[in-house]
Write a structure and sequence with these properties.
Blueprint lengths: L1 E5 L2 H5 L2 H16 L11 E5 L16 E3 L2 E3 L4 H12 L2
Parallel strand pairs: 1-2
Antiparallel strand pairs: 1-3, 3-4
Length: about 90
Amino acid sequence: MKVKVCVGSNCTFLGSMSILDQIDDLKDIISDDPDNYRDEDLEVEAIKCLGFCKGTDEKVAPVVVIDGEPMYNATSQIVMEKIINKIRK
């Protein structure tokens, strides 16, 4: 699973660094519990800017992309739920 977290200024201001920290914690939890989670590689990448905020007046930050699917106004809870649902056995 590939997770991209935007760490551009707007996304960082609105919490993307917290999301990255939570994903790192989740990676440890998943690796410690092979009975409940598939052995899937969780590739996390911090991207300087994903470009979703440019040219729009809509508030979309922070932005997280999981396997090509963008999540706007992402929160740690929503991102964690999505990742867990994808890799739970």
